[in-house]
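Re: Re: ligand-bound prediction request (bumping)

Still looking for help on this. To restate: I need the protein modeled with 2'-deoxycytidine-5'-monophosphate bound, output as structure tokens. Inputs repeated here so nobody has to scroll up.
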Amino acid sequence: MLFYLLALMTTRHVVLAIDGPAGSGKSTVAQRLAERLRFTYIDTGAMYRAVALWALRQKVDSSDMHRLEQLALAAEIELSPGQVRLNGEQVTEAIRAPEVSLAASKVAVIPGVRRATVAKQRAIAGRASVVMEGRDIGTVVFPDADVKIFLDAQPRERVRRRLLELQAKGEEVAESALAEQMEERDRRDSSRADSPLSQAPDAVYVDSTALTIEEVVETILKIVRMRVTNGKEFH
Ligand code: DC
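Reply:
Sorry for the wait, this slipped through. Here it is.
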């Protein structure tokens, strides 16, 4: 499959779109897929988080749509494996703080912020084949993506995963408070007027609740094989 993909990539870039709610496993799975396929991994949530971090630091109110759009347009966001930079500063850890998660979900409601961020995402995919994960990749950013996956998991499992992630970083969070925060964020991400989280009609639904990361990766690779490489195998 790799040979076929490399040949394909010399003629056009491939887009593998992965959408789904927080804690569904998108980031880990998308990173592994990008490694296996030798594509560029793009975490679009990190872009909204970077804009939100800047807004928090500048004390911009989450209702100030004009200022927030300006920040999103001006933000220089660089994504490299395992690293996020905002205007040259390393913000990889800072954008994962719980208050930034909530603020990201709020700035992501604003159409001007989305326009600016989506333009950056499309520009990246114009230069390379990508595994891009977020909420609106298969529906809005790349409605013609080669492969679309909607990755989901039961809410309790998603909370459990996020809790483990935070605990691994030494952060103390009460499970009930985290569940509430995630529910609030999911509700806002799914109900906003502009580009809400939803499954594209041609996306494949994958429930990761009872699967290991490797099982999810293999499931998606099979779909890539079917849709992009005419069933050709790896190696
Ligand atoms: O994937 P994440 O949890 O890091 O994303 C942070 C927030 O950004 C999330 O609450 C919703 C928003 N987001 C979005 O609206 N569209 C995307 N493509 C990616 C993230």
